[in-house]
Amino acid sequence: MNKTELIAVISENAGMSKKDAERVLGAAIDAITAALVRGEKVQLSGFGTFETKDRKARVGRNPHTKEAIEIPATRIPAFSPSKALKDTVGR
After folding, report:
1. Beta-bridge mates of residue 69
2. What is the helix, strand, coil percentage profile of the chain, to 5?
3. Rounded CA gap, 37 and 29, in Å?
4. Do the bridges between strand 74-81 and strand 68-71 make them parallel or antiparallel, or are there none, so unpaired?
5. Alpha-carbon gap, residue 42 to 63, rounded angstroms
6. pLDDT at residue number 91
7. Is 91 in a helix, a strand, or coil?
């Protein structure tokens, strides 16, 4: 499912226009992104938790030259599904 298909499903299930559904989805994504940028967790009961995780700096290898390269530390977004979501998908 892509974003356009998701907007169509939201529109149909909520009984709203596709334009309104697109704005709602956009606002939700923007709110989650802003919270993650601030380093906050976003917990959606029954769905899961969005959070950020820190990756330490490490040494990697260029696969073509086998030369060692320094990979800097970064902060990445992560999602942990809730037990309810895992159980529903696992059926």
Report:
1. 60
2. 45, 30, 25
3. 12
4. unpaired
5. 37
6. 84
7. coil
- Residue-level pLDDT at 2: 96
Residues 6+ apart with CB under 8 A from 63: none
**Six token digits for residue 19:** 């334009």
pLDDT tens, residue by residue, 8-45: 999 999 999 999 999 999 999 999 999 999 999 999 99
Contact (Cβ atoms closer than 8 angstroms) between residue 77 and residue 50: yes
**79, 48 contact by CB (below 8 A):** yes
- Pair 3, 18: CB distance under 8 Å: no
| Joined tokens for residue 23 | 């704005």
Residue 14 amino acid letter: A
Segment 68-82, tens digit of pLDDT: 999 999 999 999 999
